[in-house]
Design a protein that fits this description.
single chain; 261 residues; alpha/beta; Alpha-Beta Plaits; Molybdenum Cofactor Biosythetic Enzyme, Chain A; 2 domains; 6-stranded mixed beta sheet; two-stranded antiparallel ribbon; 10 helices; 8 strands
Length: 261
């Protein structure tokens, strides 16, 4: 009875605890071990979803314990539920964070003629910088360029030659007559990595139907990864969050390393 109650409780977690999200439960097990005067409850849950499932496990444990309490109180009046704790949590993006002896070096290139001329404030580049710094990347350069293909190519080549690991561009990925970032990038990268741009657009498409209109690419020149992000601050943020921290594994692969997962 306690096992069934715990499973039902896990499924109703979002109804019981404010601000928790209703999520699908792919697996749940509730096991009991009986000692001399104690019953230990162990719950294990799994899901493939956007958020963790620890609250469902903790709720299942609590409901199971309360069910046992209710059923044994006629024979043992003074019962006690001692502690409920999370012992282990695995999965999610944090499990795919690679570490490096030295911080990765990054450059940010804001491509916008209006921003270059001082007519528009840059927001996307600052958002990109904040996210990269949260992952301990060292920002080597932050520049604003006009929508001129040759200047963009010159910048990308120069920082590649200086050995930076990552160049993020923002702007110039749309369908306007002056959107030339993609053309500039395509002319210099040696290997395209379509999975990166596919991941960004798939992530964005769940949030706005305009994501499919971004033409940004990702590729490698020598040992430098170049990624085109949209020019809007919201698009740039969502696109980059779709990639980190899994993106950083590419630098292990560039050096000849395999997959550790």
């Amino acid at each position: 009875m306690a096992r069934v109650a715990g499973i039902m409780g896990a499924k109703k977690t979002s109804e019981l605890i404010p601000l928790t999200h209703p999520i699908p439960i792919d697996f749940i097990s509730i096991d009991f071990s009986l000692e001399e005067d104690e019953i230990f409850i162990k719950v294990k849950t799994k899901t493939i979803w956007k958020t963790g499932i620890e609250m469902e496990a903790l709720t299942a444990c609590a409901i199971s314990a309360l069910t046992i309490y209710d059923m044994i109180k006629p024979t043992k009046q003074y019962c006690e539920i001692k502690e409920i704790r999370l012992e282990e949590k695995k999965g999610g993006k944090s499990d795919f964070l690679d570490t490096f002896e030295e911080p990765l070096k990054a450059c940010i290139l804001v491509i916008s003629t209006s921003t270059y001329e001082g007519k528009r404030e840059d927001k996307a580049g600052k958002i990109i910088q904040k996210i990269l710094e949260e992952y301990n990347l060292k920002i080597m350069n932050y520049s604003v360029l006009p929508d001129e293909k040759e200047k963009i190519k010159e910048y990308l080549k120069s920082w590649t030659e200086k050995g930076v690991n990552l160049i993020i561009t923002t702007g110039g990925t749309g369908l306007g007559p002056n959107d030339l970032t993609v053309e500039a990038s395509k002319e210099i990268v040696e290997k395209e990595v379509p999975g990166i741009s596919e991941a960004m657009r798939a992530f964005g498409q769940e949030r706005t139907p305009f994501s499919m209109l971004s033409r940004g690419i990702a590729g490698i020149l020598k040992k430098t990864v170049i990624i085109n992000l949209p020019g809007s601050s919201k698009g740039a943020k969502e696109s980059l969050l779709a990639l980190v921290p899994g993106l950083f594994h590419i630098f292990k692969m560039i050096e000849g390393g395999g997959h550790s997962q």
